Amino acid sequence: MATAAARWNHVWVGTETGILKGVNLQRKQAANFTAGGQPRREESVSALCWGAGGETQILVGCADRTVKHFSTEDGIFQGQRHCPGGEGTFRGLAQADGTIITCVDSGILRVWHDNDNDKDISSDPLLEVRVGPGVCRMRQDPAYPHVVATGGKENALKMWDLQGSEEPVFRAKNVRNDWLDLRVPIWDQDIQFLPGSQKLVTCTGYHQVRVYDPASPQRRPVLETTYGEYPLTAMTLTPGGNSVIVGNTHGQLAEIDLRQGRLLGCLKGLAGSVRGLQCHPSKPLLASCGLDRVLRIHRIQNPRGLEHKDEPREPQEPNKVPLEDKETDELWASLEAAAKRKLSDLEQTQGALQTRRRKKKRPGSTSP
Fold first, then answer.
1. Which of 35, 50, 155, 228 could in theory staple to 132 by disulfide, Cβ–Cβ 3.0 to 4.6 A?
2. Average pLDDT across the chain, whole number
3. 35 closest CA partner among 63, 74, 84, 69
4. pTM of the predicted protein model
């Protein structure tokens, strides 16, 4: 693949077949990149992150527990690091100070030397932290790369300083029991650090959006709101950090204000469950992808606007109407014809009744 084909891509997406896709939105073209030349299900991409020092390198976390380094300048994979331990796929991936941070489903968070190709560097992890089972997301603090947050199903939000102790520096406390005095279940699906503050925001599998302040002694959410009726699966901060955009299992997208907890608007959704959301750091643009295998670019200022759509193209016969549409049209046509016949019969019956009434009122009429 040519260097320019990688350098000028605007959006990067990982697939379940192990392909890293670069999408050029101006040309509306997508380029495929694989480490071995052929897609492999064993290399299914479960996590992506930028390498330290800019957007010249992408770290790709795969199902076989390898972390691959991809150069956006050269358009090639430049090495990989095997990161075993624990069970499940990567639920978070980050790079900091020459190290790689990984976290898997079973709750094993490990810190590794970044370069596994150097024979003088040990293949053992530098640090291992057990963050609890059922992890759904590990997220790095952009302002402090050695600080991460974790959360999951029945695994409350925690914040860790990987340069400090192996105990969390913040552990969220569950909300109070509901109105039936029943315990409220925990299911943090995604986490974001709010810029310019110590606060964190989470979205849950029970369609809640919560803001936490580690400086608050109560350790419970300082703000909570809900959206829709379905599990929230992904979340991203808008430019400025005053709101988040969340997506759920039914493909719905919405922007939530983090100052008042109110719904600011809904965006054109997906045809399947949302799997990834990412706002541009400065422009009002949102990239979304999900189970429908379509990458969409939304303009946030226009809540229903869709800037661009990239999806797999399949050859279609010209002017061919889908079978479902034909059947639907035929059904409506038959219903309309039946309705017209019924209306005509009714009008004829009413006309006959009125004629009989007029005849009956005439003097000397012998009509029955």
1. 155
2. 85
3. 69
4. 0.79
pLDDT band of residue 305 (cuts 50, 70, 90) is low
Of the candidates 84, 210, 231, which has an alpha carbon nearest to the alpha carbon of residue 156? Answer: 210
pLDDT of 94 higher than 70? yes
Pairing, β 208-212 against β 200-204: antiparallel
Amino acid at 161: D
CA distance linking residue 49 with residue 72, whole number of Å: 13
Q: Which residues, at least 6 apart from 16, have a Cβ–Cβ distance to it below 8 Å?
A: 41, 44, 45
Running DSSP on this structure, what letter comes out for residue 114?
S
Q: Are the C-beta atoms of 127 and 111 separated by less than 8 Å?
A: yes
CA angle 87, 124, 169 (to 5 degrees): 70
268-275: long-range pairs with CB below 8 Å, 24+? 268/296, 268/298, 268/304, 268/305, 268/306, 270/294, 270/296, 273/233, 273/248, 273/249, 274/233, 274/234, 274/247, 274/248, 274/249, 275/233, 275/234
Q: How far apart are CA 23 and CA 295, in angstroms?
A: 9
Order of strands, sheet of 90-96, starting from the edge strand that comes earlier in the sequence: 90-96, 99-104, 108-113, 127-130
Q: Report DSSP state, residue 219.
A: -
Quick count: other Cβ atoms within 10 Å of Cβ 202?
A: 29
| Rounded (5°) CA angle 144-145-147 | 70
Choose among 65, 45, 205, 43: nearest CA to 134: 205
Buried b (16+ CB within 10 A) or exposed e, 43-73: bbbbbbbebbeeeebbbbbbbebbbbbbbbe
Q: What is the C-alpha separation between 255 and 300, in angstroms, rounded?
A: 9
H helix intervals, the chain:
3-7, 323-361
Nearest to 125 by CA among 162, 98, 99: 99
Q: How far apart are CA 119 and CA 51, in angstroms?
A: 22
When pLDDT is cut at 50, 70 and 90, the band that residue 182 belongs to is very high
| Residue 253, number of CB atoms within 10 A of its CB | 24
